[in-house]
Amino acid sequence: MDRVEKLLQYLQQMPLDNFLRHALALEYIKLEKDNEARILFESILKESPGYIGSYYHLGKLLERNNEKQLAIEWYEKGMAEAKIANDQHAYNELQAAYEDLVY
User: Fold this and answer.
1) Which CATH architecture does the domain made up of 3-102 adopt?
2) Could you list the pLDDT tens digit for every one of the 103 residues in the chain?
3) Distant-in-sequence, close-in-space partners of 93: CB < 8 Å, separation ≥ 6
4) Which are the contacts of 22, defined by CB distance < 8 A and separation ≥ 6?
């Protein structure tokens, strides 16, 4: 059984588990299924805006798909959430990605 199938199986038991959904989105990216990954990341962040790791990956996915302005918006939201969570490491990663894109 491949990773996607295994993650989908786990998600049947725990459909709102952000760790599993995030992991599945990353697997979709590897398979170049960007739309599926995007749907998962956006769903995670809509329901759990404090799930900070997904902001970076969603932003990078949007950059790859030439959606620069939307990537910037997600990086900004992620930086705001990282500040709230006092997660300096995540903030720095998001800020670096943001600055690479903007400047």
Assistant:
1) Alpha Horseshoe (1.25)
2) 699 999 999 999 999 999 999 999 999 999 999 999 999 999 999 999 999 999 999 999 999 999 999 999 999 999 999 999 999 999 999 999 999 999 8
3) 56
4) 40, 41, 44, 51, 53, 54, 57
End-to-end Cα distance, the chain: 44
What letter represents residue 54's amino acid?
S
d(CA 58, CA 54): 6
> Which three-class secondary structure state does DSSP give residue 8?
helix
